[in-house]
Design brief:
Growth Hormone, Chain: A; 3-stranded antiparallel sheet; 18 helices; globular; transmembrane helix; MFS_2; transmembrane
Length: about 500
């Protein structure tokens, strides 16, 4: 290193020291802030649990839509969510300080909360003043509220995820925040299934094995409980977590001057992220992890109703409840397992549990004794819960690694990841429903076998693809190669991409 280059290097070191002394990095997140952050997605988690677990059941068996129409409603929601995540991710990154200096992430999050609170109650309730109208009119009615709900859901999800990299730069702290966030996701699902099992058990009526239009009040009650609990958690989040008041561009500029042994950290834009191979690899793993989770979550209740028709309908809630309890327990040691095995090995470990669960789902139907059938179902759900919890936490952490210190485009990255998984889930579930042979209120051998195939072969296929993709990046240092050497005469002249990035959004200044 020449004297000139050496002088430049030590000038940057001194600059970094001064800036860190003036504005300390939030490396260790206080416990109060961790708790407030962890409950900031509970409203989304509660509503998503109902959305994926009971949407097809409600619209097919209560509202009396055909299987295909119910699938198209879910597809409309997923497409709306996918488009919204991209828009919100891009605009959230371009926003300066938010509305009335409330914080750019929290402002978008608050918009999402309001949309969810105002629309979700209508999604799981009979059409107001039109429940006897033609099904096409009811289809339009539900579609409008579903689109509003999904826009709000994506606003809250993307901004909540993007805050992880802005709250701390320590890898262990980020894994912890992801684990706490996922733990509350699991708790939210457990809560929904526990309440649903009570409501379905108490209001059994004449038919203890099926769900009909007479059960509409159960879904309405469950919806209002979800909204009430979610609102309390959103108040805790917005009151208890304070977003940095430092202008986003100043924080980002300081990070760009951060030095490591490899050189200076490169500034990233949405275009430069799209040029990275690891971006697409992480997106594929994220998408596959969510497809396994959502497909099993959507079709497990239908599998229980139509494939294991002898069990009490309360198992529609009890079985997924067991899955999420095991997932919650699996999330606690996740930080230590990640540290010992690494992200990629932990993903493969989680997928092995998922593959084991699919084998049980295949053989449960052949059991003749109800007791063994219940034991097999619970065991399959426990293995599935461990597998999905592990792979989802690791996929979140991989994406966090991909973003690294480049928080200037964090929401955009999470938005594209979410776009891929929402679109994939919507298409897969819509196709499954399009070819669904089951007829309303009529369980047949063909119908029982259909859900058996869905819960076995789709998770197996997606898990194998995920393992193969993980192997392709086994030795890749995700997000760790964005450093440029400091050379003599180097200046901070902005590239055209950086200039484009700095054209901030006029929507929220």
């Amino acid at each position: 290193m020449t004297d000139a280059v050496g002088s430049k290097y030590y000038i940057f070191i001194l600059y970094r020291f001064v800036m860190e002394a003036a504005v300390p990095q939030a490396d260790v997140v206080p416990k109060k802030s961790k708790f407030a952050y962890s409950v900031g997605h509970v409203l989304n988690d509660l509503s998503a649990s109902m959305w994926f677990s009971y949407l097809l059941v409600f619209y097919h068996r209560v509202v009396k839509f055909s299987n295909a129409s119910a699938g198209y409603l879910l597809l409309i929601g997923q497409v709306a969510d996918a488009i919204s995540t991209t828009f919100v991710g891009f605009e959230s990154d371009r926003t300066r300080t938010g509305l009335f200096h409330y914080g750019r992430r929290k402002t978008w999050h608050l918009v999402g909360v309001i949309c969810v609170l105002c629309s979700f109650p209508f999604c799981f309730n009979l059409c107001i003043k039109c429940k006897h109208s033609d099904l096409w009119a009811q289809f339009i009615y539900y579609s409008m509220f579903i689109i509003i709900f999904q826009f709000g859901w994506s606003c809250s999800q993307i901004t909540h995820l993007a805050m992880i990299n802005e709250l701390t730069h320590k890898d262990g702290e980020r894994v912890a925040l992801n684990s706490y966030r996922y733990a509350w996701t699991v708790i939210s699902n457990i809560f929904v299934y526990a309440i649903a099992s009570v409501l379905l058990g108490v209001h059994s009526g004449a038919d203890e094995t099926d769900i009909t239009a007479a059960d509409a009040h159960i879904f309405r009650t469950l919806t209002f409980i979800v909204i009430g609990i979610g609102l309390v958690c959103m108040i805790i989040f917005h009151v208890g977590l304070r977003e940095s008041e430092q202008p986003a561009e100043e924080t980002e500029h300081r990070l760009q001057l951060s030095l490591t042994s490899s050189g200076r950290l490169k500034r990233m834009t949405w275009k430069t992220f799209l040029r990275e191979k690891e971006f697409y690899q992480c997106a594929f793993i994220w998408m596959c992890a969510r497809v396994i989770l959502n497909v099993t979550q959507v079709f497990l209740p239908l599998y229980i109703i139509d494939s294991i028709s002898t069990l009490n309908r309360a198992f529609v809630a009890i079985a997924p409840l067991c899955s999420y309890v095991s997932g919650l327990l699996a999330s606690f040691p996740m930080r230590a397992i990640n540290k010992r095995l690494g992200r990629k090995s932990t993903i493969v470990l989680g997928l092995s549990f998922t593959l084991a669960s699919t084998a049980l789902f295949w053989f449960i139907i052949d059991l003749k004794d109800d007791l063994w059938m219940k034991i097999g179902l619970i065991a399959a759900c426990v293995l599935l819960g461990i597998g999905t919890s592990t792979t989802n936490i690791c996929s979140f952490s991989l994406t966090s690694d991909l973003i690294g210190l480049n928080t200037e485009c964090g929401a955009f990255v999470y938005g594209i990841m979410s776009f891929a998984d929402k679109l994939a889930n919507g298409i897969v579930i819509a196709v499954i429903q399009q070819f669904n042979p089951c007829i309303l209120l009529a369980s047949t051998t063909t119908c029982a076998s259909y859900y058996r195939y869905i819960l076995t072969f789709i998770p197996i296929g997606v898990a194998v693809l995920t393992i193969l993709m993980t192997l392709t990046m086994w030795k890749t240092n995700v997000g760790g190669n964005r450093h440029e050497a400091i050379v003599e005469g180097q200046t901070d002249v902005q590239t055209s991409d950086e200039n484009e990035y700095n054209e901030r959004s006029p929507l929220i200044a």
